[in-house]
Amino acid sequence: MAKIDDILPPGESVNKQKLRQYLASREWATPQDFGAIGDGIVDDTAAINQALEEERTVFLPPGTYRTTGPIIMGYGTTLIGTGAESVIQARDFPYDAINLPTYPSNFNGIEVVDGYSTIKDLWIVGGATGIELAGKAGPCVKNVIENVTIWDAKNGITFDGWDDTNRPCYWNNASRILVARPQINGVLFTVTPIDGNSGDTPNANKLHDVRVYSLSAPLSGSGFFLSAARFHNSFVDCEANLHPSGEACFRLGFSTDENRIVNFYAESLGLLPGVKIDNGSKNTTIINLFSATGGAAIFDPTLGGEYQAYNAGFPTKNFLKDVFVNDIHIDGLTRGTTFIDPPIEHVGDIEIDLEHTFYLVSSFNLAYDLVLPNASDAIGRHVSIKKSDFRDNPITIKEKDGPGPDRREIIMLQQYDTVTLISNGANWWVLQDNRMPQRSTFVDVDTIPSGIYEASMLHRVYLVSAFTGQLIFQLPEPDQAVGRLATIKKIDPSSNHIKIQQINGTGGPDASIFSLIAHFAALTVYSDGGQWIVLSDNF
């Protein structure tokens, strides 16, 4: 067994804690016993592997151990170091804290190929995967990875079901792990078939206090990607702080079932979601999710919704995006609300995107058209629209490239007019409409040079004066005023006629042209969409 002087680099002084570690190491083998140098230049791969083959426990003294192939952890072996001073460098060049990394390694830093192994208090720099757990020699079970930092690997830690169900990846434990600047994924759960043979998905593995941190380095995958993982893999107090180029802080692939995510912290300046759930994933439980990303806290793009979430998402709790629910009990419900009040200089229509269920609208400054999405783009969407101001400026509710609610346009004129709509994908339908009786308006022939007044049907009562000459009062086509009711009353004492007819002289109420001659004569008409019908008259 090597002496302490042989283990320590020449001239290096140590503190008492290190000395105690070195004294304890006299019972353990070191790679130096088998020819390792630990200077970051000489290839120490063979020496470390030989030490692990011949001794159950290998101590890695302070130093940088350059490797050109994977370090193999067989059954019951232990590799323990002194923390940041014990470095396995799985590439030709050393760790660089300043410059963004390149990822040249095509081999893994450490491969755990069997069960009951321990990796503790190490740094790993580089590697196709920093640490891979896969049952290549025997069942990859009950392995422990503790207090390890992995820098600049393509994938930080991989749990792999490999190619044989008799050699599964079960019951492994990883805690106090930092994966920094990964190129693809920080933590990967997968199955790698070999020659058409496929093993079981990684099951019942426990990860605690595992942190994935991009540190400004782009990555193409996720902080945690469970490509294949079933039956009670748990992730407690873990974190992913990712570059905006990533897919998700935590992604659940299609072949995942019964996984547990507790107290997860997701952070990114980009739009990637906190947790993304792929089609096929089911029975995941998410508890206490803190999501500080630009995307959804939980994003289920397939609308599967086969997961449970409690206190999931910050600052919005349980922001589930599109989710189908068969049965639900709600104690309290907050509806998303938008206020629309265009300035007087506004020109054109206003299109609403249905991101909210309630729109409080104002036409205080001007009249405008409020355009709904086409019904085919809003299947099942429910929206309420309420006019909040007291001005006479109408708000016309239309449909983009469609006929509109109940196949017509809706005009909101009175303060507090409200309409509730729903789309079945073919049309928008009115569920509820409390628009109050329209106000009256005064029509004077003196202000109408042509002598022809075209009624907009925005009002319920038209008080008309023909004192200085005859006036023609034109109603719109019946199908343009479905359900509208109007009363036309002559308020001047002259004998001049007020003729009531449809626009362009195409008939009138009850298929007739009516004339109001007497003072206070009045006619009330109603459109059923096919014709104007006289409801009452007093002449």
Please describe what this structure looks like:
The chain has 539 residues and is mainly β. The protein folds into 3 domains: 243 residues, Pectate Lyase C-like (3 Solenoid), CATH 2.160.20.10; 97 residues, Jelly Rolls (Sandwich), CATH 2.60.120.640; 98 residues, Jelly Rolls (Sandwich), CATH 2.60.120.1230. The radius of gyration is 38 Å and the shape is rod-shaped. About 1% of the residues have low confidence.
Number of helices: 3
Kindly state the mean pLDDT as a whole number?
A: 89
Described by strand count, sense and barrel closure, the largest sheet is:
9 strands, parallel
- Report the CATH C-level class of the largest domain: Mainly Beta
Overall radius of gyration = 38 Å
The tally of structural domains comes to: 3
What is the gist of this entry?
The chain is mainly beta and 539 residues long.
